[in-house]
Amino acid sequence: MKEIVVISGKGGTGKTSLVAAFACLADRPVLADCDVDAADLYLVLEPHILRQEDFSGGKQAKIISERCDGCGICMEVCRFDAVKKDIHPDNPGQMKYIIDPIACEGCGVCVYFCPQKAIDFDPPINGKWFISDTRVGPMVHARLGIAEENSGKLVTLVRSEARRIAEENGHPYLLVDGPPGIGCPVIASITGADLVVVVTEPTVSGEHDLDRVHKLSSHFGVPTVVCINKHDINPEVTERIFEESRKNDMPVVGKIRYDNSFTKAQIMKSSVIEYTHGPVVEDVKETWAGILGAL
Ligand code: SF4
Ligand code: SF4
User: Fold this and answer.
1) Record: fold of 62-120
2) Is 82's C-beta closer than 6 angstroms to any atom of ligand 1?
3) Residue 282 contacts residue 30 (beta carbons within 8 Å)
4) Which of 75, 109, 119 to mutate to test the pocket of ligand 1 (most atoms within 8 A of CB)?
5) Ligand 2 site: residues with CB under 6 angstroms?
6) Taking the model in full, what pTM does it have?
7) 225: nearest Cα among 260, 261, 190
8) Does ligand 1 lie within 6 Å of residue 165's CB atom?
9) How far does the centroid of ligand 2 lie from the alpha carbon of residue 151, in Å?
10) What confidence tens digit (pLDDT) does each residue in 245-285 have?
11) Is 11:38 a contact under the CB 8 Å cutoff?
12) How far is the CA of 36 from the centre of ligand 2 (A)?
């Protein structure tokens, strides 16, 4: 089984539309939507959910104010400065302690030392993940709660479930729609993959993003190829991307013309492969062949 992860330096490059198109061309792929902050592969593939589970990014401490006597021990022992104190709103002579959920690392030290057993330590539910069936193959996807952290951990979970399904059922490909950018969720989605496909556009910011992604993927030693989407909107920059990619041992495996069939297909909840027989389909097919050739 080969794992192909499709990423982009930033959002809006057409990455997800291309993943949906590749999924239609691949032979029985398993799909993993690892763009958990803005999961939208399901909009095109309309999954039928077979199983859903809660996701918890880890334990977090929370003071139950009715039990707290304001001794301040939790603040003394927390080395992450996550405990804050304020004047108690009902009793100005007493201090009120609260835990900043962003700063709390969930180490549990304050829970252990609190003499009143006034600190709750249950893992909060941060999101949900799903195993579904789609018309092109099984799909693992997720939804993270608004402003929730730990998307790297959720990406790892989605990826490993998708890998398990692919291996157990003999699927030849695992196709991952990765998160945009170069942060922790991207690292969680590319490490150990067989191939990373970077979708870029011929713009100055696209060139810059490609450079950042190249540094990231070469740091983690993952073979990487490039797909230039909307290559005809700026032939000069497209040529520069070809040259830079060659120099960086990150070959361009395909270029896809600008075509508003992508948008129209998305509106119709289909991939461009299912929507049209126009010349753009040949571009996508050649790119997919280039990806398989690079594996
Ligand atoms: S250690 Fe417990 S009782 Fe003391 S301030 Fe903290 S939560 Fe309240
Ligand atoms: S769980 Fe750890 S990090 Fe969180 S408030 Fe308690 S001591 Fe601080």
Assistant:
1) Alpha-Beta Plaits (3.30.70)
2) no
3) no
4) 119
5) 61, 77-78, 80, 82-83, 99, 104-110
6) 0.82
7) 190
8) no
9) 20
10) 999 999 999 999 999 999 999 899 999 999 999 899 999 99
11) yes
12) 27
Rounded to the nearest angstrom, the distance between the alpha carbon of 25 and the centre of ligand 2 is 49
Sequence ranges of the domains in the chain: 2-57+125-294, 62-120
For 167-187, what is each residue's pLDDT tens digit?
Answer: 999 999 999 999 887 888 888
Token match 């003071």: residue?
63
- 241 in contact with ligand 1, CB cutoff 6 A: no
CA 110 to ligand 1: nearest atom: 1
Q: How far apart are CA 153 and CA 165, in angstroms?
A: 19
Q: In a 10 Å sphere around its CB, with 0-12 CB exposed, 13-18 middle and 19+ buried, how is residue 146 labelled?
A: exposed
69 lines ligand 1 (CB under 6 A): yes
Distance CA 218, CA 207 (A): 16
CATH superfamily of 2-57+125-294: P-loop containing nucleotide triphosphate hydrolases (3.40.50.300)
What are φ and ψ of residue 37, in 5° steps?
-80, -25
Q: Kindly tell me if the per-residue pLDDT of 148 is higher than 70.
A: no
Type of residue at 248: N
pLDDT per residue as tens digits for the range 50-85:
999 998 877 889 999 899 999 999 999 999 999 999
